[in-house]
Amino acid sequence: MALGKKGLGRGFESLIPTDLVAEEFDPTRKEDKKMSKLVELEITEVVRDEGQPRKNFDKAALEELASSIKEHGVLQPIVVVKQGGKYQIVAGERRWRASQLAGKTTIPAIVRTLDAQNKLELSIIENAQREDLNAIELATAYAKLKEQFNLTNEEIGKRVGKSAASVVNTMRLLKLPDEAKKAMQEHHLMEGPMRPLISLDREKVLEILPKMIDEGWSARKVEQYIAGSKPKSSAGAIKSNEYLKEEGKLAEEYGVMVKIRGRSVTFSARSDEEFKALLKKL
């Protein structure tokens, strides 16, 4: 499967950026290459999975994506399985619909047989349950299940024995700069101490990383260092840092992105399904 290191993904909005699913962190890339084929399919050869529950797509969002596709093309291949003389969509129906709106006659697709798709899903799940898998590889495995197998956070959690909130928090590691992700792999850095770095800019992360590696910093030590490096004279900056923990706790509890600004708390769900799940928890 001749895909670039950052070729698998666009989306998860700001919470989980799947355009950072790099092959070098993919624990099943070797199996995937054996089972998959990247091709350019005629739009007319592709059909939706009638068994998929989602049938309605936001018109404005589709038009916005279609506009992006007109300018940049389809940056993330859809995933299909061969069904008779057609190719049935496993993941990427929104991209397929938007491509039609954009007037495209072909679309990039990862083609697998149904048997290969099932085998690969099982392989990813087995890898995600391995104790020796580092956190960034685990995040990549989760993101791949979500992106290429159309699984929700809840479904991924059930398959690997984790909560949906735990799955989301692990996938958030994909927001880290490449240097941080490579350091996690090479130096076996744990998820906990890396989480506070997710919201920082690249320069700050690169400042902290060597200290974490050399001195084996805990999550608490990382948080203290970040708090100590904030401008003391800015009450707003101190207050913002003060709420990082609360945002993290709420995000873990409710499985969605959380922002605290002043006296307001904002919960952001990426899908109707997650929104409905959130409402039940509130």
Write the layout of secondary structure elements.
Elements: H1 29-35, E1 37-42, E2 46-47, H2 59-72, E3 78-83, E4 86-91, H3 93-101, E5 106-112, H4 114-128, H5 135-148, H6 153-160, H7 164-171, H8 178-187, H9 191-194, H10 202-215, H11 219-228, H12 235-242, H13 244-254, E6 257-261, E7 264-268, H14 272-281
Parallel strand pairs: 2-4, 3-5
Antiparallel strand pairs: 1-5, 3-4, 6-7
Helix pairs in contact: 2-3, 4-5, 6-7, 7-13, 8-10
Can you tag this structure with a few keywords?
282 residues, alpha/beta, Conserved hypothetical protein from pyrococcus furiosus pfu- 392566-001, ParB domain, 3 domains, 5-stranded mixed beta sheet, two-stranded antiparallel ribbon, 7 strands, 50% helix, globular
How would you describe the overall organization of this protein?
The protein is α/β, with parallel strands linked by helices. Helix content is 50%, strand content 13%. The chain is built from 14 helices and seven strands. The chain has a five-stranded mixed sheet. A two-stranded antiparallel ribbon has the order 6-7. The longest helix is centred in the middle third of the chain and has 15 residues, at 114-128. The protein is globular, with a radius of gyration of 20 Å. 32% of the residues are buried. Mean pLDDT is 83; it is low at 1-20 and 233-239.
Summarize the structure.
By secondary structure, the protein is an alpha/beta fold. The chain has three domains: 1-175, Conserved hypothetical protein from pyrococcus furiosus pfu- 392566-001, ParB domain (Alpha-Beta Complex), CATH 3.90.1530; 176-229, no CATH class; 234-282, no CATH class. It has 14 helices and seven strands.
